Amino acid sequence: MNDEIFFDQARDVLAACRTKGLLVATAESCTGGLVAGALTAIPGSSDVVDRGFVTYSNEAKAQMLGVSPALIARDGAVSESVAFAMAEGAVNHSRADVAVSTTGVAGPGGGTATKPVGLVHFAAWSRQGPRLHVERRFGDLSRSEIRKRSVEQALELLMKLVEEVKAVA
């Protein structure tokens, strides 16, 4: 995936974080590190991006982010609750002030009647308290297109969160 397609969006997120003195972490499943990749494609991003977690398996979500296996068993990995737990875990397991997470079904297989291909949950979490969630149903698109749109949505949600967070003293 071409990093330049997210350049303006990622640059704006980094600038807003710099202005407020915020560090960022990402917790990604279906996007496989593409959100962190979009942010770190911008020169100088190391003053804002603390780290990215690629937690593709349920075991990785539990081990790296502290997501409860019982929560995953109850709600499924592709759920609002797990998206929030991933974002919270990214903040709690890093120096970041804010984090964004992605978990979904990028396809072409793996979908069910209740969790179809194209369903992605996004969460953004702040140490200060603002917490945001978006559920998107991208529909029957290609895997690449679902992942591309997921990166765009994740960066948009992260920007919205950063706008709500107060500057770090």
Short description:
It holds the Pfam family CinA. The protein is an alpha/beta fold and 169 residues long. It contains 6 helices and 5 strands, in the order αβαβαααβββα.
Features:
Maf protein; single chain; alpha/beta; 6 helices; five-stranded mixed β-sheet; globular; 42% helix; 169 residues
List the helices and strands and how they pair.
Elements: H1 7-20, E1 24-28, H2 34-40, E2 49-54, H3 58-65, H4 69-75, H5 80-92, E3 98-104, E4 119-126, E5 131-137, H6 143-164
Parallel strand pairs: 1-2, 1-3
Antiparallel strand pairs: 3-4, 4-5
Helix pairs in contact: 1-6
**What fraction strand?**
15-25%
Query: How many separate structural domains?
Result: 1
Low-confidence stretches: none
CATH structural architecture: Alpha-Beta Complex
Number of separate helices: 6
CATH topology: Maf protein
* Fourth CATH level, the homologous superfamily: CinA-like
Largest sheet properties: 5 strands, mixed
What strand order characterises the main sheet? 2-1-3-4-5
Indicate the overall shape: globular
Global mean pLDDT: 96
Helix content: 40-55%
- The termini sit apart by 37 Å
User: Radius of gyration over alpha carbons?
Assistant: 15 Å
**What string, H for helix and E for strand, traces the elements in order?**
HEHEHHHEEEH
Going by helix content, strand content and strand pairing, the class is alpha/beta
CATH level 1 class label: Alpha Beta
Number of strand segments: 5
Structural notes for this entry:
With 169 residues, the chain is an alpha/beta fold. It has a single domain (3-164), classed as Maf protein (Alpha-Beta Complex). The protein has helices at residues 7-20, 34-40, 58-65, 69-75, 80-92, 143-164; strands spanning 24-28, 49-54, 98-104, 119-126, 131-137. A five-stranded mixed sheet has the order 2-1-3-4-5, with helices on both faces. A hairpin with a 4-residue loop joins strand 4 (119-126) and strand 5 (131-137). The protein is globular and about 45 Å long. The model has no long low-confidence stretch (mean pLDDT 96). This is Competence damage-inducible protein A. Residues 10-161 form the CinA C-terminal domain. Pfam families: CinA.
